[in-house]
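Replying to the earlier thread about multi-chain prediction with a worked example.

Input:
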Amino acid sequence: MELNEIMFVIFGAVIVFFSILTVTSRRILRAATFLLFVLVATAGLYFWLNYEFMAAVQVTLYAGGIVVLIIFSILLTSNINDRFEKVAGRKVIFSALAAIAGAILCITTILQQEFQATEALAREVNMNVIGRSLMNYGENGFVLPFEVISVLLLAAMISAIVIAKKSKSK
Amino acid sequence: MAFNIYDFTSFTEWIDQGLRSVMSPAWAVITELAIIGIVFLVFYALIGLILVYAERKICAFIQCRIGPNRVGPYGIFQTIADFIKLLMKELIHINKADKLLFNLAPFIVIIASFMALSAIPFAKGLHPVNLNIGIFFILAVSSMGVVGILLAGWSSNNKYSLIGAMRSGAQIVSYELSVGLSILTACVLIGSLQLSVIVESQADGWLIFKGHIPAVIAFVIYLIAATAETNRGPFDLAEAESELTAGFHTEYSGIKFAFFFLAEYMNMFLVAAIAATIFWGGWMPFHIGNWEGFNRVMDFIPPIIWFFGKTVVIILIMMWFKWTFPRLRIDQLLTLEWKYLLPINLINILLMALIVLLGWHF
Amino acid sequence: MNNEVLKEKILAVLPKAEFAPAGQWLTITLPKERIRSYCQTLKDSPELRFDFLFCQTGLDLADQFQVIYHLESTEFRYVIVLKASIPNKENPEIDTVSDIYRTAEFHEREIYDFFGIHFKQHPDLRRIFLDEISDMIGHPFRKDYKDEVNIIER
Amino acid sequence: MIEDTVIGSIEQQEYTINMGPQHPSTHGVLRLVVSLKGEIVTQVKPHLGYIHRGIEKMSESMTYPQIVHLTDRLDYLSAHINNHALCLAVENALQVEVPERVKYIRTIMDELNRIASHQLWWCSFGMDLGALTCFFYGLRDREYILDIFEESCGSRLLHSYYTPGGLMKDIHPGFQKRVKDFIKYFRKVLPEYDQLLTGNVIMQERTRGIGNITKEEAISYGFTGPSGRGSGFACDVRKHHPYALYDKVDFQEVLYHEGDSLARYQVRIGEMWESMKIIEQLIDNIPEGDYSAKMKAVIKLPEGEYYQRVEAARGEFGVYILSDGGKTPYRLKLRSPNFSNLSAIDLLARNFKIADLIAIGGSLDLVIPDIDR
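Result:
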């Protein structure tokens, strides 16, 4: 195996291992921490693909942002001695079956697809290119999704403020 | 191969060539990684020791004291003695703590600062990775450090720790915005996120002079926000010794406490290095536009000295903050960020864009 | 301030007041039932305004308990002393003044702790100093208190 | 609604933390049980008695000169002033007239003690707010006073310098010069305190409007000393019930009316200036004479009750003595300022943040042995 492949295998193993731990852990904060590892390993995969911008976005948004918020809300709401209930045997079997079925579906689909090797070398994605395509309304432009997401975020923020205000006035 | 302290490119290439000539490329990469890792570990420990010693001496001078003066001449071995003491101390196990997370937390904090360090250009040709989104990468990985603090606070099963962790979470999440935006202001002028390009583009003058008003505002905001991000006084609410005994690391002892301690100083070095790189030109000597003669004279000082000199100055400013100001309260801290720094920052970034578009910068 | 003038002023609002023989300050002795009404009157009277209770002392005399109230008028700078006697030594009780003078809340807890004098209607009558010492039983400032371990009789 | 009940139960949950008995900012072994809602304090319950020594009970089997040594151990930062109260009570009971020289020295010593106490308060207050540098500035200057004390009293903290009737020993020959040097030095240094802490925006924001108490409440809570005067409660015993030489010297009662932590802070800073003024008026005029009145070998107080009020550094200190004619008191009660000041902490800190509770505690300047007598 080449070094490249070894790296891929390591990242894949980390992702799979911590994903399983995330869903099986009975302590909520541990689950959140394992999720953090999954997300960081995913960012590692992006780095492995030389797609640094995406990797950094992954780390900032998911690892640094969303996991922090999740942990923060866990801190606010749960006690250290809280445990999830042990799941009943039947539920475990069913969910395992569902997960395995999903995995098989994904793997077969991927295997059936014939990926064509492209000749083009990995192009270094310049910041200028990213910035311009984000603000572009022509072909390959992302201004519409960008703006729509902004509106969504604005709505979320306003609703958060409204909720916070409501409990205060009571 | 001539060893050149003005340009490390040839030096690093020489090492690379040498390694590749004796082993396969894969092993060469692994060996290089190992070398960089070891160098960084040593560097990390060294910076930690020096900074702790410097902090003690400087705070002693500010407080009309002498400071450490027993271990070695002028007490220079004091921090080493302290680290040995910390290493030999008992690691206290807390019965009702979440042991896995409790033990994991210091590592997350220290790994985050370690990773961020890997993208800093120390001198010309002396940076481990030259990512094209370098500054964004540093912001991203350093934002992971807060997870370690939150975990430490929660898993200690101590109410003071939990309050400290909450404060630190709220604080770091808020101040990351200001750090990011003030760096973005600088990047608007430079037009790149790659740290090597950022430094090179300041060859005709540092950014703080080129961008004049908005750059100065961005620098000041960055300095405030970065002090807050590193949990240092006057923003050390997460530790808040007088209120929360020691905040999130109340329950830690021995080497695990040393990790938090080290990470705090490392983060301070890191934010100072970023400020020096972005606003004061990193390893770039002090150049003034077209004054060829003056620039030549400045070039005689090696870049690595320029880099560390600037970083040290910024660290000194941050230490001066800590030993002069009282601590803020949590609501005042958040008010400062959300009501003052953030709006100023947003207006400032617009101003910078305007200046760039109209070409009013130098 | 002449004690005689003060005496007249007090008699104007509290005609039944009994004065003790002259000491450092004018002293009124009173039965324990009247303490609340006396304090309230002395505080509210515009001529006197005794609004500052600067000391409250418990006392174990041979035949009775006493609670001594040192009052000052911050407006006119008069000082008087109220002495409330509690003859029942078995089960001492007195009304609280902690709603009139808030500082009495702590002082009364202290007196309760040391003398076992029960203050009726006190908002939070718990032992203040000795509550967590399990082997401390009884009220140590009573003259009949015996503790062979900790107190050496001389 | 499920969400409503969940949110409701979280909001109603009380979060209780124990501050103390060992905590960096309770200045001793004080335990505050603090109920929190988020960071906001909803209730503070002080739990006392961790260092209760039963001084009042001990005094009942001790002679008066012995009790002097116990009064030191109350508010150890104003040891001279506590001694003064007991000595005055005994002297008044015996109707002894102490020599003029003793009065001068006692007044000067009291004021030096007050300055030293306020210096220590200032540095610990700075530390409570997180400004560590203050601590060293205050301690540095306090050394000068402690050196003066050491020279004359032989002791730096618990002096027991006063005895019923006078002083233990005469002052050191260099006393006047040392005190004058100190005053000269401290007049230069005190503005530095203002530069370092008083003028700081963060400090002002942390203390202005925090821990308010009105004048009426202050009187009702028996809130004396600089804490009471920060609320406009004129409670300076030196002015209103003068003892020693306070009716002969010219000084101002420092009053602020805001009633917040900043006002209490400014009162103490102002008092340091006033104390220096008092010392300057007296230091050059110490008359020659004996350092003690003639006293009997065994002091027996005539039957009766005696009360002496003095102004200690933290407020009104009182000694109540009930004597049955013997050489030991029948009952001795000590009215300690911190005990009454602490009783208001719940009122002061409620609805403020934890950090404010620390600032308020600092602005009250609590000394725990004075509370746990």
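The first helix of chain A runs from residue 3 to 24.

Feel free to reuse this layout for your own posts.
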